[in-house]
Amino acid sequence: xxxxxxxxxxxxxxGEASSLIxxxxxxxxxxHWLPAEALQLVSERLQVPMSRIQHTATFxxxxxxxxxGRHEINICMGTACHVRGAPRVLEVVQNxxxxxxxxxxxxxxxxxxxxxxxxxxxxxPVMEIDEQHLGKLVPDTAAEVLKKYE
Length: 150
Ligand code: FES
Fold this sequence. Notes:
Elements: H1 3-12, H2 20-31, H3 36-46, H4 50-59, E1 71-76, H5 79-83, H6 86-97, E2 103-104, E3 110-115, E4 127-129, E5 132-134, H7 139-147
Parallel strand pairs: 1-3
Antiparallel strand pairs: 1-4, 2-3, 4-5
Helix pairs in contact: 1-3, 2-3, 6-7
This protein binds FE2/S2 (inorganic) cluster.
């Protein structure tokens, strides 16, 4: 872990305990997960008990306590997306990435998950990669999109 980088993130928020969530989000964005050493450092610098930090880190879906790939794929399996072909999109993404929902590939390139709704049902099937929404997907388009990611 790059301790200096974590220190720098904490400093950018003036070490304020009230900025805990934003600090954790910045660390999550930088490392793609929240290592225990980083949480310990945040606890010490912000003078916030580890129990509160762990509660926060496990409460929000945006945080991960296990390593994630460089690119996070969420495929909507909600009803509107499901009836428009989301299972076929999921199948092709699983085949290309070699991982199932909840997994990260060994190269740490992709993490894959399914969600129940991404809030844009009219665009179904919808896939989100690194918070970018891609709608009206067909399996071939999803396959093309994945090729663009390093
Ligand atoms: S059901 Fe897929 S975006 Fe709402």
